[in-house]
Amino acid sequence: MTPDPHRAHVPAVVHLDHVTRRFGDVVALDDVSLAVGPGELVGLLGPNGAGKSTLLSLVAGLRRPDAGTVRLLGGDPRDPRSRTGLGVTPQETGLPATLRVQEVVDFVGGHFPDPVPTPELLDQLGLGELARRQTGALSGGQKRRLAVALALVGRPRVLLLDEPTTGLDVGARQALWDAIREYHGAGGTVLLTSHYLEEVQALAERVVVVDRGAVRADDTLDAVLRRVSLRRVVLTAVEDLAGRPGVVRAEGAGDGTPARQTLYTPDADALVRDLVTTGVEFHDLEIRGASLEEAFAEMVAPEGAAR
Ligand SMILES: Nc1ncnc2c1ncn2[C@@H]1O[C@H](COP(=O)(O)OP(=O)(O)OP(=O)(O)O)[C@@H](O)[C@H]1O
Fold first, then answer.
1. What distance in angstroms lies between residue 291's CA and the mean position of ligand 1's atoms?
2. How confident is the model over 129-158, as a mean pLDDT?
């Protein structure tokens, strides 16, 4: 399951070893082991209730495991010395409503030995013009960006982001992605959860799929995508091609006029050969691999489908 066997020689910055965490009868994490090496950008994917936030809260030292061990930067995550190397953006952020944006950043930065200068950080996250606004007057998206600024202000070695761009518009999301990439490019380690598969596909090099408290897949993004056997053949044709040999699913079927159709098949070459040899007229042929969405659906099915 470990994508890179060489990683075993590098001490992990985040390490969970056979970790179980229950809430009453609910087993939120069930014997989970995971090691994240320095400089990795890992996307945690999973349906609602899979255990992602619980995992992050254990790494952040906010909760203890019922069984197993969690290590952060080689130490106990509940030890403040380990936590000074950590930046966290929880799913919901409680900001003091009457403090101004720059005051909050100054205040949090004041707890660290070498904070990022507040104006620099606010500019990086597109919050420069809001520096003097009270946090209670920020929009939801602006609050998310401020939460990420607070996670970055102490120049952390590890960044935990729980759904960092939920509720953001396209521009704000892009700005945040840039900030995450910049942090990672400078050697930072990132563990992020997201409901947006495109976000994980855009950012992560490694994908860990969590479902019902267990790790279902842990591999490079490319390898996860390769696990999906289906290919997408996209073309324009008059004839409805849904029933052609090898087509397991089809979208956009023709109705007597030329229509853009997407045909899912395990063997795109065989399908195209069949269309050509049987004289089907088509144009603008494209063949694509699977998306992360398809890979994810395949990995959490079939039980996941009933959730
Ligand atoms: N404080 C709590 N008390 C009781 N049950 C909890 C608590 N926190 C989490 N759970 C349960 O543990 C399971 C895992 O929840 P968790 O929040 O870790 O999932 P998640 O993958 O982060 O979900 P989402 O994508 O919806 O945020 C769920 O069944 C949830 O209801």
1. 27
2. 91
